[in-house]
Design a protein that fits this description.
alpha+beta; BirA Bifunctional Protein, domain 2; 7-stranded mixed beta sheet; binds phenylalanine
């Protein structure tokens, strides 16, 4: 029996050398020190042995048991520390600076358009849209500018050839967003409160202050009892929300064939506070939009009775706003796709 104990001891030590992981170590423990292991059953059978044999074998078996337990504890420690070591080696150093991403951003025109629209949406206006290639009828005729009307000269027009079997019908690139007023009034009856953002086109040589394509936001409100006071209140509130609550507004007469009366709205220069500077051309005022009460002829043409309903309309250039705010010296920067310019916004 003594030799059996020694065999267990030597094979246990040999097997322990081969153990490389915690799972294997547990299997080793069950095999050599578990309840059903050889060594433990020898220890359990001691009581049945004669006294002198019991003492010798008992002493030896207990010694082996203690050795194995000590080896087990030592091996476990070794394995644990090597696991910890590889965890430390593989861990991520979160203090290392990351790789910067190049994020895309919104175009200054898009940003400004959204900013303008958000203000009017908060006042109860809805977004309307119309085509950029437009019928002459919507761009001019229905806006009280029949053929040969001198006001057409103010809108340098890009004409589009459109021929059908029944003859040609004049088409153009819309010169303003006002045709969306007509399209809206044809489709929905008052009360109407819409804003129409979009691109417009002019047949013009480009320079620092002219582009052949730019953006506008149009507005239209039609209802019973709409007066010039509504126009003033709405646009004054708009100007103050966009340019700051300490802005003053100036309303002056202007002429647009589709409104009567027509006005031009200016704010006091936010650079010099009205004293006069380079930005406002020394006048102290900056023109920001055109507006007026919708002309009765325009309402009638859309099937809205001007004796019952009235409305106001306004239109503004979008690029002009960042040009003023950021002192951009050339409108051509907006669509020349120079990232050095675009990344600044
Ligand atoms: N459509 C005009 C323009 O482009 C602006 C405007 C819109 C004026 C609505 C009055 C009312 O100049």
């Amino acid at each position: 029996m003594l030799s059996q104990v020694d065999e267990v001891a030597s094979s246990a030590h040999a097997d322990l050398q081969k153990v490389t992981g915690l799972d294997e170590l547990e299997a080793w423990r069950v095999r050599y020190l578990g309840r059903k292991s050889k060594l433990i059953s020898i220890l359990r059978s001691l009581a049945a042995l004669p006294v002198d044999e019991r003492r010798d074998i008992g002493a030896r078996a207990n010694q082996v048991k203690n050795q194995l337990e000590a080896s087990l504890a030592q091996k476990k420690e070794e394995l644990d520390s090597s696991v910890n070591l590889s965890l430390t080696r593989e861990s991520i150093d979160i203090s290392l600076p990351g790789q910067p991403y190049h994020l895309g951003r919104l175009h200054p025109t898009t940003k400004t358009t959204r900013e303008i629209c958000d203000i009017f949406i908060s006042m109860g206006f809805q977004i309307a849209e119309g085509p950029e290639v437009e019928w002459e009828y919507y761009n001019f005729e229905a806006l009280n500018m029949p053929a040969e009307h001198p006001a057409r000269d103010g809108f340098a027009t890009l004409w589009v050839d459109y021929k059908t079997e029944t003859g040609a019908r004049p088409m153009l690139m819309r010169t303003h967003t006002s045709p969306v007023q007509i399209r809206t009034m044809e489709q929905v009856k008052p009360p109407i409160r819409v804003i129409a953002p979009g691109r417009v086109y002019r047949y013009e040589a480009t320079d620092a202050t002219h582009e052949w394509m730019f953006s506008q936001v149009e507005g239209l409100a039609v209802d019973k009892n709409i007066t010039m006071a509504d126009l003033k209140g709405t646009l004054f509130e708009f100007a103050r929300r966009l340019f700051g609550t300490d802005r003053k507004c100036r309303f002056r007469c202007d002429y647009f064939p589709f409104v009567e009366p027509g006005v031009e709205i200016a704010i006091d220069c936010f650079m010099c506070g009205g004293k006069g500077c380079r930005l406002c051309g020394n006048s102290g005022w900056i023109e920001i939009l055109g507006a007026g009460m919708v002309h009765p002829e325009v309402l009638r043409g859309c099937g809205i009775d001007p004796e019952v309903y009235s409305g106001f309309a306004f239109g503004m250039g979008v690029e002009r706003i960042p040009i003023l705010r950021f002192g951009i010296d050339d409108i051509r920067h907006f669509y020349s796709n120079d990232l050095r310019f675009l990344r600044q916004f």
